[in-house]
Amino acid sequence: MAEEESQLEEFEQIDFLRDRHVRFFQRTLQVLPERYASLETTRLTVMFFAVSGLDVLDALDVIDRNNMIEWIYSLQVLPTEDQSNLSRCGFRGSSHIGIPYSVKGPGVLHPYDSGHVAMTYTGLTSLLILGDDLSRVNKQACLAGLKALQLEDGSFCAVPEGSENDIRFIYCAACICYMLDDWSGMDIQKAIEYIRGSMSYDNGFGQGAGLESHGGWTFCAIASLCLMGRLEEALSQRELDRIRRWCIMRQQSGFHGRPNKPVDTCYSFWVGATLELLDVFQYTNYEKNRNYILSTQDRLVGGFAKWPDSHPDPLHAYLGLCGLSLIGEPNLRKVHPALNITQRAFQHLQQLQQTWRDNAGTCT
Amino acid sequence: MFYRDRKEWADLEPVPQDDGPNPVVKIAYSEKFSDVYDYFRALLKKDERSDRAFALTAEAIELNAANYTVWHYRRVLLQALQKDLREEMRYITDIIEEQPKNYQVWHHRRMVVEWLNDPSEELEFIADILSQDAKNYHAWQHRQWVIQEYKLWDNELEFVEKLLEEDVRNNSVWNQRHFVISHTTGYSSPAILDREVQYCLNQIRKAPHNESAWNYLKGILQDRGMSSHPGLLEQVLELKETHCSPYLLAFLVDCYEDALENNNQKETLNRALEVCEYLAQEKDTIRKEYWLFLQRSLESRFGPSFDPTVNYCAVYY
Question: Which EC main class describes this enzyme (chain B) (predicted)?
């Protein structure tokens, strides 16, 4: 009797509560309380977590896609009449600067309005996920804005006014160029040099040269090289094997981001996706990984947290789902490990890009 | 008192946020929050350069220290109004102590240090932040920037040793050790390399289950020939009896692989395959499939390959 009971308990602990997660993302897309104020300038990334999360759950039908698409376009920094702000174009994270709502150009001249590379990246991915054809994106302006952010050492800043520069923004830039099918927005060779320079003595990647290797930056490095189509050109077989070893050693139950640090749900994606890109994710322990991710599931409000018995948040909710998708959890859509969108959204992108190429051929 | 009710601000028209008819991920701000930011947006639009603007940025930061536009505008004002940068250092010190994991505050501090061209407070300040969280990535990043930019290498190895005494498993400190040595003496001299190898082995004797120490050891040897460092393999095999760990065994596999690349011997291969088996079945079972994969890979690269199309007899005549 006792054995039966504890088996039932075990099953309850580890079952996946799909409907709770759907509702968690729905609530995220609506209104958040003031204690989330620090997310204001990155609201578009929060939208991406929720929208892509719903896509992974195959639940996009619960939201109003068209209204969301309009909101995203209202965040586009478009060229002004005289095109003097091209190097500042892209997408904003939110309306925090106070530009009046508008989904079309020309852009409004404002001394402090500019795009942010992570918002341009998540704006484009969110549009794709919602089924948009990107026809209202000023691609040339986005690429001009992107180009202005790359530094001599190959890394990128986030905004033209200046910010910290590191490998995260190389990843954002690579995603933007990949989606727009146009690499004129970055100097690939310099970016590769920066990425190589970020490889640590222990064969993981840090945020920049000399810095401690870390699961998130390792994902940015490898995923960027994959998107550029330069993985095997940039790294030797010996180096790739050493990177595989560094990554696979991150599994403790779930995964951690650095040696001797605690595990955290989000690394099930950052490290898991990297291992998948390197063809060795199949050699990880799926059961222990799954058990850890589900131990961080919030059974009441939905979503996932970094640790068990902690508050869930949109980032961990989304990446927890992606982590489960990588191990083939039933009823979850497959995720493209480099671009971090569902394979379904990726196919939509491929079809779009084919249309662009066809049109370019016939337009003379 | 709200800004909208202050007469000294009556000349400004507050600018609300405008998300249009269907806002997404909307944050529900209190009246006080909206009031401060509506006036921030108004100042921004005019690009006003004034003391009242400067004062307001501090309030805006207190409500949301992650708003990079507020920090940028504050820097513009610091320069335009020629504000006291020493006072700004005190200000940013307080903010970082409260919010040490925020990107914007560290970037701001870096800008002020650059303007002052004075890093003299940095190492002590960062040490204080690290005393509260010894693995804070921002703190280590800022520390490396300061040291490299202003050539403050002299006491850093001592700092590293002190922190390793406090926690020999702190991976950030091992990374810093590599950072300091590679930028000062380097690892080329046999004396330094041997010193570092012995240092690692000593730390491993004290705390065997420490991936950081093993990663460092492998890291400094992997491009210099792991199997060629005199006496190392013997020391590791000795440690295997009393201080075994998955990291020690993985290091052994890597030593054998290095040896095989220079001199493919059946005995060496067998030892490597045995250790992989031991890791897969007993000592690192979570990575069982990986160790078996590595075993197959070594077998394929270095094992005898019987090719039925070759007439082996013909080779000898």
Answer: transferase
pLDDT band (50, 70, 90) for residue A238: very high
| Cα dihedral sign, B133-B134-B136-B140 | positive
Q: Which residue has the tokens 């003496």?
A: B185
With contacts defined as CB-CB under 8 Å, which chain B residues touch A40? 27, 64, 66-67
Residue A17: Cβ within 10 Å count: 16
The secondary structure element, H or E, covering residue B28 is strand B26-28
Asked if A282 and B215 come within 8 Å (Cβ–Cβ), the reply is no
Of B107, B215, B290, the CB nearest to A283: B290
Residue A108 CB-half CA count within 13 A: 15
Radius of gyration of chain B (CA): 30
Residue B305's pLDDT is 72
- Domains (ranges, CATH) in chain B? 190-304 (1.25.40.120)
pTM summary value: 0.95
Chain B residues in contact with A43 (beta carbon < 8 A): 24-25, 27
Where residue B316 falls among pLDDT bands split at 50, 70, 90? very low
**pLDDT, tens digit, 9 for 90 and up, residues A213-224:** 999 999 999 999
Residues of B in contact with A36 (CB under 8 A): 27
DSSP-assigned letters across all residues of A140-181: HHHHHHHHTTB-TTS-EESSTT---EEHHHHHHHHHHHHHHT
